[in-house]
Specification:
heterodimer; A: Rossmann fold; Rossmann fold; 17 helices; B: mainly alpha; two-stranded antiparallel ribbon; 14 helices
Chain lengths: 510, 345
């Protein structure tokens, strides 16, 4: 095996409130396609930015070509031979293809562009990538996503990059364009370049990858696995498995024998999920387990009315909700803590109490004006209930840790006195250590009589937290029963079985 | 879009000259300029005469010099609201230094240039260092300069207009450069038209043929990406702000030496006209797209409308309303053309 071209050891990167990378090791050799696998939030994007020189690691070392490297800025990484192709292709639409390729290191004499020179050099690069049909003088904005990707790669080659990092390059491509991309990657590999390929599509990793490294919770949980032979179940277990086993607060009191509060019957949305039925009693926690893309988030968002159901009904306390109406759902007592707290749930630059009272403003307003003191004290009380730390209602939400941000969202719905709580990935972006707190809080809320639905791609989390579990695969409920009667392996088996039975097995695994 | 045959593969298609022309940002302004010209030429007696043309060309020229500089800045993703008042500021500086303090006229002109470049650099520096939008930063400098033009000038010379400029020693020398006229086919052409054409050519050439031109498109279109690949974002943006200030100085001198006077309120309110001309000429407010020639054509349209309205016997107060309609129309058309271009991919 050749000596490593690029070696990362013990990389740590901290942001206020969260440790995004917590000891990442990565070894990349020349002439290989090295896949980086991990769920959303595992630290892939942060690692890419460290490689690209956009972030400087707090700890750990980078060795490139046998020498210690420190990338003070993106240009230093480029100069060292690492080029990064981001998912949102960072080309300038208004410039020509050749200008984009040589942007920042223009071929010029005394500041004057040598257009014919750079066009010729650009053409050579594009030909070497197997795409002679892209004219160097063409305006980049008029290219397709696949064409832009080729231009990005030409840019990387123009910098004599030895390592090319590609962040989910297939995400913007059609299936047949992916074939073209893979041909280019294979040529690059044959010419001795190293490719770091980030994707969560197992099928692609099997097709193109040589070796792979799995990240979870900001750590390398497995390195140097053969990309083609490692069994899918092992990979999924590595990505979803819990390394630090958290304490799950089990039910202490027996479930009261009440009528179901939330009843979902035959819910369906074309091309997303079909025939989803379940019911939740007050005090009960029901979990939805499944991989990304299985339709879990779509299901809870449809229950909440944020997506309009095509079929089926949602009933709260005997009353059927109007389809596609968040207002009706909230009025009936539903509350959603969305998956993307930062973009969907919180006003990051507002104070804690403002975020909490957001859903209850009518209560604090008279003639359209809000009564600030009442709003503030009620919100403060709610934030104490969930134990937001520090206990300062005026603090800006952005400065809180992930776990405390999640508590703010929970407090919002408590203040709204909601009766059914839908939690989508409640511990995403929450430090491993702080998760048990969220679990305890969720259990306490349920014990107080709330009906709770929990969605998570962390199978252990769903099983540990919920009383009953629904396993979702490919938009269908493939299993439903008490959580105590099934373990993570069984859940994975059922997901895999359904994947194999549906002949178009995508292998969407994270 | 405009090619008659449907190419089999868009990536190998050779775009016809017509289609390529239609993709240029300034094409709309060119057509509009022709329409406006024909309209006033056919409906009024004086518009297309040499005397008429020299009037609207002169109006277009001073606006055009600024519009071209503002267009470069807008392609780079920023605004400069202090551009208009800069024309008054530089003229007043020269006027006060020479008529009141008796400084040599050439020295005063150089001092005005240095002050203008300093203000431009300060604009750029504040925008880049604070991260505040350039709209706010230059709105601030706009009002500061406006106050200086009025209060400081009044404090020093006791009035709000420069007088006795033509009695200043060596006045005739810079007047040749900034305030002379010459005859072309019966029309008296002001030297500002030459400046306008020269500025447009140089700006176009910088945009299309130099490294700095690439950088201007890059910082306006994708600032983060530009920084990553090593484009000197800071330098480029400061240079752009200094360019509009420089253009303000040119126009300040042109106005001063054409009329031999300058008033404290010169240039106020013009900043938006420059932006309108740049947008009519195809610049996007979001940056990364536009052309210098387009902005020059936008100014030509402005100059023609500005003179055409009184020639038609209409109340010239309608000018602003017409400008507003033109701006909206240009934006809608640009928007539509770009959408079509994107769909055609």
């Amino acid at each position: 095996m050749p000596a490593p071209l690029l070696q990362l050891t013990g990389i740590v990167k901290e942001f206020p409130g969260v440790r995004a990378l917590d000891g990442v090791d990565l070894v990349v050799r020349a002439g290989e396609v090295h896949c980086l696998l991990g769920q959303n939030g595992a630290g892939k994007s942060t690692l890419i930015k460290v490689l690209a020189g956009a972030y400087q690691p707090d700890e750990g070392e980078i060795v490139m070509d046998g020498e210690h490297a420190h990338f003070a800025d993106p240009q230093a990484a480029l100069a060292a031979g690492i080029a990064t192709i981001y998912q949102e292709l960072d080309l300038v639409d208004g410039l020509s293809v050749a200008d984009n390729i040589f942007l920042g290191h223009e071929r010029s004499r005394f500041g004057f562009s040598r257009v014919s020179d750079s066009n010729r050099a650009a053409r050579e690069l594009l030909v070497s990538l197997g795409h002679p049909e892209i004219r160097p003088s063409r305006e980049t904005g008029s290219l397709s996503a696949a064409g832009k990707q080729i231009v990005s790669m030409a840019r990387a080659l123009s910098r004599q990059a030895q390592v090319i990092v590609m962040d989910e390059p297939s995400a913007v491509l059609d299936p047949d364009e992916v074939g073209g991309l893979f041909r280019v990657i294979e040529d690059l590999r044959a010419s001795g370049k190293a490719i770091v390929y980030i994707s969560h599509r197992l099928e692609e990793i099997r097709r193109i990858g040589d070796r792979l490294t799995v990240l979870k919770d900001g750590r390398t949980v497995a390195a140097d696995l053969p990309a083609r032979e490692t069994p899918t179940s092992e990979l999924i277990a590595l990505m979803t498995g819990r390394e630090v086993s958290a304490e799950y607060p089990r039910r202490t009191t027996p479930l009261p024998d009440a009528e179901p509060l939330l009843v979902v019957d035959g819910l369906g949305r074309t091309d997303e999920f079909e025939d989803v039925s379940f019911s939740v009693r007050p005090g009960e926690i029901v979990g939805l387990a499944g991989l990304v893309g299985a339709g879990r988030s779509e299901i809870v968002e449809t229950v909440y009315g944020a997506r309009r159901a095509d079929r089926g009904t949602v009933t709260v306390d005997g009353r059927t909700l109007r389809r596609g109406s968040v207002d009706a759902a909230v009025a009936a007592g539903l509350g959603l803590c969305p998956e993307e707290r930062k973009s969907q749930g919180l006003v990051l630059d507002e104070a804690v109490y403002r975020n909490i009272s957001l859903a209850s403003l009518p209560r604090f307003s008279r003639f359209g004006a809000t009564r600030d003191s009442a709003e503030r004290s009620a919100a403060h009380e709610a934030s104490r209930t969930v134990d937001v730390r520090p206990d300062d209602p005026d603090r800006v939400v952005r400065t809180l840790s992930g776990g405390n941000q999640q508590k703010v969202v929970l407090a919002r719905w408590l203040l709204r006195s909601c009766r059914v709580l839908l939690l989508d990935e409640p511990t995403r972006g929450v430090d491993v250590g702080a998760r048990s707190e969220i679990y305890t809080l969720i259990r306490t809320l349920a014990d107080e009589g709330l009906a709770v639905v929990v969605v998570s791609s962390d199978i252990d989390e769903v099983l540990g937290l919920s009383d009953r579990v629904l396993v979702v695969a490919d938009g269908r409920v493939v299993h439903s029963g008490p959580s105590a009667e099934i373990d993570a392996h069984n859940v994975l088996d059922r997901i895999l079985a359904s994947n194999e039975s549906s002949h178009e097995s995508e292998g969407d695994a994270a | 879009m405009a090619t008659a045959t449907a190419p089999p593969d868009e990536r190998v298609a050779t775009t016809g000259p017509v289609a390529r022309l239609l993709k240029r940002p300034e094409i709309g302004a060119l057509i509009a300029a022709l329409v406006v010209f024909l309209f006033f030429a056919l409906t009024t007696e004086t518009f297309a005469t040499p005397a008429g043309a020299s009037t609207w060309l002169q109006t277009s020229s001073t606006i055009g010099i600024m519009a071209v500089a503002v267009a470069l800045l807008m392609i780079g993703g920023e605004f400069d609201l202090s551009a208009g008042v800069m024309t008054g500021f530089t003229g007043l500086t020269v006027g006060v230094l020479t008529t009141h303090w008796g400084l040599n006229i050439w020295v005063a002109i150089v001092v005005a240039l240095a002050l203008a470049l300093a203000v431009g650099a300060l604009n750029g520096f504040m925008v880049m260092k604070t991260g505040l939008p350039s709209f706010i930063v230059t709105l601030g400098t706009f009002f500061v300069l406006q106050g200086i033009d009025l209060a400081l000038v009044k404090l020093i010379i006791g009035q709000v207009a420069i007088q006795g400029m033509s009695n200043v020693p060596y006045y005739d020398q810079p007047k040749k450069l900034f305030g002379s006229t010459f005859e072309v086919g019966g029309a008296t052409i002001h030297v500002s038209v030459i400046w306008w054409i020269a500025v447009t050519i140089i700006a176009s050439w910088i945009l299309m043929r130099t490294r700095a031109g690439n950088w201007i498109f890059a910082v306006g279109g994708a600032q983060g990406a530009s920084r990553q690949v090593g484009v000197p974002v800071f330098r480029t943006k400061i240079g752009l702000f200094m360019t509009t200030a420089f253009a303000g100085w040119i126009v300040g001198m042109l106005v001063l030496f054409r009329t031999s006077t300058v008033q404290s309120n010169t240039g106020i309110g013009q900043e938006f006209i420059y932006i309108i001309c740049a947008v009519v000429g195809g610049c996007l407010l979001t940056g990364g797209y536009g052309s210098a020639v387009g902005a020059a054509l936008g100014a030509l349209i402005y100059g023609m409308v500005n003179q055409g309205i009184p020639y038609s016997g209409w109340d010239s107060n309608w000018l602003k309303a017409v400008l507003g309609v033109m701006l909206l129309g240009a934006c809608l058309i640009n928007n539509w053309v770009r959408k079509r271009a994107e769909n055609a991919r």
